[in-house]
């Protein structure tokens, strides 16, 4: 335990890894942690910020994948088309982005510790798929029945069954994520139920440190 506490040397800060497959409710769950007073490091947001106009990674990504940059930075749709289904291209992209995201994450955690936070959440869509759970003290998986997930996904603009199936193929099955998780949040039972789950998770983690 105390993964980041050991690295940061001073007061331990507990890292909670938050994940969930597409349309399981991870984004709303992250907001619940924030409302409960736990700061969130959003990995997707960090990647987005790195690739906007004049972003730290924009020039490097354009050099690696010529033609994906536009007036507002990297065109993520164009970039996705270049790396989707191409493991070598995806690995090249990750070699650019992952170190930068890691640096931002460390700064975020250091700031949280300086502000007296005892817990932080690391929001990572592909937490287990990328091995990022090794950087966490606890993991939380957000889940919902498959039929609920499917309804939510296909209600999104421009989403198709084919796109949905392609996304699922890249993600670890929900039942395997649940098997690996320390905690599970059910997002199909209403906001109050989910918020109560978050409160109980926070209490349990803090109690473990006493």
UniProtKB/TrEMBL annotation:
The EC number(s) this enzyme carries: 2.7.1.24
Keyword annotations: ATP-binding, Kinase, Nucleotide-binding, Transferase
GO BP of this protein: coenzyme A biosynthetic process
Annotated CDD domains: DPCK (cd02022)
Gene Ontology MF term list: ATP binding; dephospho-CoA kinase activity
Gene3D superfamilies the UniProt entry points to: P-loop containing nucleotide triphosphate hydrolases
InterPro entries for this protein: Depp_CoAkinase (IPR001977), P-loop_NTPase (IPR027417)
Pfam short name (any one): CoaE
Name of the featured protein: Dephospho-CoA kinase
Organism: hydrothermal vent metagenome
Origin organism lineage: unclassified sequences, metagenomes, ecological metagenomes
